[in-house]
Specification:
Strand 15 and strand 16 form a beta hairpin. This protein is mainly beta and 290 residues long. The relative contact order is 0.12. The protein has two domains: 132 residues, no CATH class; 142 residues, Trefoil (Acidic Fibroblast Growth Factor, subunit A) (Trefoil). The strands form four sheets. Strands 10, 14, 15, 16, 17, 18 and 19 form a seven-stranded antiparallel beta sheet that branches. 6% of the residues lie in helices and 45% in strands. It is built from one helix and 19 strands.
């Protein structure tokens, strides 16, 4: 569709303080959550809303053919290193909300300003929004890169305010072939620990005999998890074998396809805030394998 000098698009930003902002944010949150099947936790991190009108000789009309729209905007300052940030265009129609098919392109306007351009086609104009969100299944990113932890099978929750004893920690020694040993530790809530960190809610205070596993980011939510054995780096590798068949965990000198561990944070109820470690076939590291 071509536009003559008497036809043009009018785009106005819906500013903060407008009564529509809260309603649009709630509708957007509901829509992007509905788009996910199954429905994990969606965190809407930023949104911009616009009124788009199609004017002909001073009057607002609907176009008689699809119109391509491009919106260029300063990229919001979000934690892209820790979260996989997704963006979508939402259309607020008369009685429904619709996620539009769109394309996003990153640009650099200057040395100090990054921008995104969102492109979509529509046959109807009213209110639109550009949404930035992350899905809780994918919100680890590289935030653990270079960090070292004990790996625990902990039954507590984020809101637990008492210590828990006899929590099994994964050790680097073999208990038997393809099975690693465990050592019990005590886990304390943050309220009992002298720390300024807001990243973790609970801590395990142990002696140096407990294995510390180091996380090395590969891409997306994938990591190598390693430990030192007699000065040699060993790669934790989770094989796709049934526990009833003995399961299989190995510590390798060189990583293979089973050494690539995907870290998920998608628990509900008692598993909220906990991490799940799975291999390429979605087989998980769990206590039965140890």
């Amino acid at each position: 569709m071509s536009l003559t000098f008497t036809q043009f698009l009018y785009i106005s930003v819906i500013e903060k303080g407008n009564d529509c902002i809260t309603a649009y944010s709630d509708l957007a949150d509901e829509r992007i959550s509905h788009e996910q099947v199954p429905e994990p936790v969606i965190e809407l991190r930023h949104a911009r809303f616009f009124d788009i009108s199609f004017l002909y000789e001073g009057s607002e009309i609907e176009p008689d053919a699809p119109v391509s729209v491009e919106l260029t905007y300063d990229r919001p300052d979000l934690d892209d290193d820790s979260f996989d940030i997704y963006s979508d265009v939402i259309h607020f129609a008369d009685d429904m909300t619709v996620i539009m098919e769109s394309e996003s392109k990153q640009e650099i306007l200057s040395e100090d300003v990054d921008s995104d351009t969102m492109k979509f086609e529509t046959e109807s104009f009213s209110s639109y929004g550009i949404l930035f969100y992350n899905v809780a299944d994918h919100n680890i990113g590289n935030m653990l890169d270079g960090m070292s932890f004990a790996l625990l099978k902990w039954e507590g929750t984020e809101t637990s305010e008492s210590s828990q004893t006899n929590v099994p920690a994964l050790m680097v020694e073999y208990k038997q072939p393809s099975r690693l040993d465990l050592k019990t530790v005590t886990v304390y809530p943050k309220s009992m620990i002298d720390t300024d960190s807001d990243v973790f809610t609970h801590y395990a205070l142990t002696d140096s005999d407990v294995t510390e596993w180091t996380f090395t980011w590969i891409e997306d939510n994938n990591y190598y998890i390693t430990a030192q054995v007699d000065g040699v780096t060993k790669y934790l590798s989770v094989y796709s074998e049934k526990v009833s068949d003995g399961g299989r965990l190995e510590l390798l000198d060189e990583p293979n396809e089973y050494s690539v561990i995907t870290i998920q944070n998608n628990g509900t109820e008692g598993r909220v805030g906990k991490l799940r470690f799975v291999n390429k076939d979605d087989w998980a590291l769990n206590k039965k394998r140890l």
